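Appendix B. Raw example, untouched.
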Amino acid sequence: MSTIEASNRKMTELLNVLATSEGVRPSLLDGVNFTRVDRPLPRSPVLYEPSIVIVGQGRKRGYLGGQVYTYDPHNYLVLSVPMPFECETEVGPDGPLLAVSVRIDLAVLGELLMKMDRKPLPPDGNGTHGMYSTPLDPALSEATVRLLESLLSPVDAQVLGPQIMREITYRVLCGERGSSLRALIAMNGRLGQIQRALECMHANYFKTLDIDVLASEASMSVSAFHHNFKAITATSPLQYLKTIRLHKARMLMMQEGIGAGIAAGRVGYESTSQFSREFKRFFGSTPLEEVAQMRTLLGLDAPSTMSI
């Protein structure tokens, strides 16, 4: 049995203990989440924060800009910017999909790069993208197992966990596609410039945003901003903003029990009917249907009342 196969078997055993509930759940450690999916899920829209996703069992496929990104026990996923995309989940006869995600911390990234060898980065033949999948190597696999082992104990999680998260980020930086992640810290590079715009959009998604202002803050012309934004996120700034608003509205309705009208206003829509049309076009179901499906998937009870 290879090192990766042995680590993967141990990873799956630990995730079976730690990820007992279906859906995405927080761990004892801020920035680390577990994912468990007990049944196959069709291709549907998702929104991931900047993170490293390592799968112990099962398979996911992400779809973005005509590309397919597979992450499974042999390949991990990296998102260097907040990324909306479409995802489908495969569950095999061996059991549920089990995965762990580690949030990418910009401060940790910068500190690591300061201490790493200053030699030129190897070029990424696939270009600088906000999302990629790449083969899992033994060092990263073993570090993931140690992270999961630490999460069995509250004390170990707090004492050992942050250092192992840091090691996992380091292993990804050293990987064959690490240049895409390193570019996030090169704030004069296009990924760093677009990252600033994305942070602004996520912080102010409920406001009217001026693309000219975003381009100026990214130190780009409007045409260059559009070009680079689409190269990294595979969508336009306006479509990206709409996607954020729809995902935020779905989360508000699910968590707070509010209806489509209130959610639409909270995320920046002036027209509830426009919101409902765009929501159904994007998610493939009405707000009420989608929230019910999500609550069933996550094992949540329906709220006793839902305001509209």
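End of appendix B.
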